[in-house]
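Structure request: PKP2 protein, Smutsornis africanus.
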Amino acid sequence: RNMSSAGPEGRKKMRECDGLIDSLVYYIQGAIADHEPNDKATENCVCILHNLSYQLEMELPESYAQSIYMQRRNISSNDKTPGCFGTRSRKVKEKQQDMPLPEEKSNPRGVESLWHSTLIRIYLSLIAKSTRNYTQEASLGALQNLTAGTGPMPFAVARTVVQKANGLPSIRTMLHVSHPTVKKTAVSLLRNLSRNTSLQSDIAREVLPDLVSILPESVPESDIVCETTASICYTLFNLTQSSSHNARLLLSADGLPKIITISMNDSNMFSKASRAASVLLYSLWSHTDLHSAYKK
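Returned structure:
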């Protein structure tokens, strides 16, 4: 577990080690089958897999990168990196989501297991069944790592989490735990998932009211809660930017007063949370059909 956090070279060596990843997955599967999701060894295994999935899209061996990402050549090299705003950003995202998804192998081995639906379901099972905070956080963190990129693999993982494995209910439960880093990681995962336009209606229906409910009434003092608040605002931004329906959902969940209060924080002009809330407000105002509702 310590060695897996030793940087890019350490991760590369461990991913290449014959049988290591397969053994970790095998052990966790056995623990879940034996109804023992809370033992320390399971926590260690999940933490190792979490670390090995970090920057996986960037660090994939050339052979995998070629087979999985051949489709990316269809995207014009003139397109700029997708940003938060503008039609260019949306067009690039749509192109990416139109690409064929990477095919799954029925019997993955080694590094292939890291993004396979079998392991994704294991993470979701541990999120639902384990009561160890480190196990929950590592499972959420691994999914966060796998959905962090912009290629077909992160979008395929996101689709598996939301639509194929019905993972949103388990993630939603983690929004209401008392442990701050577990909550923060759950929100960060949802922020990644919400970038996928084809999943936004499902995510909004399942978790938008929960996201609003955990927004603080004012800007929090602690850094971790401030970061969580900023992530919630950016997730809501993704969900409402192109959907008047989702913006109305946010309104009916009484989210607007909270967001206004957070955006007007005077104690720290450069607060991440205040800036994110301001970006969200600016986007919400673009739905002109809701102006009268906003004013009320």
